[in-house]
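Q: Here's a chain of 197 amino acids. Please give me its 3D structure as tokens.
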Amino acid sequence: MTKPLILGLTGSIGMGKSTVAQMFVDLGIPMFDADAEVRRLQGPGGALLPDIEAAFPGSTGPDGVDRDALGTLVFNNPEKLAVLEGIVHPAVAKVRAEFMEAHRDAPMVLFDIPLLFEKGGFTAVDHIVVVSAPAETQRERVLARPDMTVEKFEKILGLQVPDAEKRERADTVIDTGQSLEATRAEVEALVARLSAN
């Protein structure tokens, strides 16, 4: 029995990853969204709240994790960040294993992993898909977000593997600097090509 082909989807902030992920879902590809799972596990009643509160007192409440409070505690503190990751990553890995079991008969699945290269997740996928757009397009998209500043954007970019390096390491690059229809056509062509193999 062959396991599903695992596509790893990634891209820097503002590159249109969520839009492209939905295009795969629209084609019937089951998707595991790592960020969505973290939000669920840390949201109201989330399974990780007791452990996070024990490690970081005052960082959770009725609405789940207070992202600002927790972020302030771990953002510039590698030791505390490692503690948080030690709580979150095993829980996400368990949910991902359950997802793979549930979709073991699917020909293809998609892992939406924003920090695919930064956190080493690329070793767990069969085909790396990077979404990319021109730097000016990326900048316009991100700076149009509420509460985003140039300083914040540049700090985020500094933490991410540069787009050019992601493109080099990709098996496929999806261009999101073009029309949605053209991007969708690239996604459809990729799924057709990989399905034929």
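Q: Can you summarize the key feature?
A: The chain has two domains: 1-30+108-197, 44-102.
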